[in-house]
Amino acid sequence: MKFLLAPLLLSILCLTAQVPKPMPLEKTLRESRWKKRVLLIAAPNAEQADFKTQKALLAATKEELAERDFLVLELLYDHLSADDREFLTRKMEIQSPAFSVVLIGKDGGVKEKSSRPISPAALFETVDKMPMRREEMRKK
């Protein structure tokens, strides 16, 4: 009997070992600097109304987000590590479990923060006024 369980246990261990641990938020933001604009969408859980609204607003703008080099990070407090929750509170000044949207420029600076969903038009208007984005548009 124990010989039959050993391969099953080994299979389970291999499967769990292959699941990559998510990169800490602080490291993700550091590695995105000068490469991506980051939009943090923080909420208590995936069922929160403003979170669902923000996702729906952005769903139809995938091309526009890609054109502006966006990385959209959905941060659900009930899935975050203690370190990531602490980083959001300390560095981003977001009080969990409140809904929040934070636009971070390629330079790593916070460009906009809202406790309500941001329309794509307002988001793109903010980004398109930035000197780095204007330079990107000139080069295209």
Written overview of the protein:
- The chain is α+β, with helices and mostly antiparallel strands and 140 residues long.
- It has one domain: Glutaredoxin (3-Layer(aba) Sandwich), CATH 3.40.30.10.
- 49% of the residues lie in helices and 17% in strands.
- It has 7 helices and 4 strands; from the N terminus they run ααβααβαββαα.
- It has helices at 2-18, 25-32, 49-59, 62-67, 82-90, 120-128, 131-139, and strands at 37-43, 70-76, 100-104, 110-114.
- The chain has a 4-stranded mixed sheet with strand order 2-1-3-4.
- A hairpin with a 5-residue loop joins strand 3 (100-104) and strand 4.
- It starts with a helix and ends with a helix.
- It comes from Hymenobacter negativus.
- Residues 29-136 form the DUF4174 domain.
- InterPro entries: DUF4174.
- Keywords: Signal.
